[in-house]
# Entry
Amino acid sequence: MTLLIAGGSGLLGTELVRRAVAAGHPTAATYATRPGGTPEVAWHHLDLRNPSSGAAVVAELSPRVIINASSGGADWAVTAEGPIRLAIAAAKAGSRMIQVSSDAVFSGKTRVHYDEHCRPDPITPYGAAKAAAETVLLVHSDAVVARTSLIIGDGQSGHERTVHELATGTREGVLFTDDFRCPVHVSDLAAALLELAWGDTTGIHHLGGSQAISRHVPCQVHLFAFCGVL
# Structure
């Protein structure tokens, strides 16, 4: 087995699976609630809350590369602890690992620009969980942490739906003018992750979009820029 995509039924995972299959890579993928719709891959249930689940899947498949695109929000067991256990299993199996992280590991309070050398200073439970998961680098010498930003995808992402619903009045809520992110299209992000997967680089890499914008007004001078251009 060449490639294992954890969280293969999500927005990013689905695009990773599609691209991997199109490129001819033998691919397996995991799901938490229901398998994805790509029949060319082998689907395996993975519960990142279960300490033995990830190790069992990795031991069964012995993948060359694992990309963890799973999303557990602020659930510490899934977002923080799960990737560490998966990285330990990957190291034991000799599998390379790509851990998808987030610009939410930064507060935006202390700097204008953030690069790969900046220390995380999260201010949300989700950001704290993602920052904790980045310690995969301590347990796996052949791991990569790929920090990204808001993932968009032709109206398919939750971020896009939220903005559209607020704009049309079908949802109640607010958008902040001082929260600036660097949105990235899911297809561009998936391509970059697969490039990292088949390379030999390690450590932290920023894979954000080229423009920092707020979800309230897309064209303003940015206050918080996550530096990482695809």
Q: What stands out?
A: Confidence is low (pLDDT under 50) at residues 218-225. Helices lie at 11-22, 53-61, 76-93, 125-133, 136-139, 158-168, 186-197. The two ends are 28 Å apart (CA to CA). The longest strand covers residues 96-102.
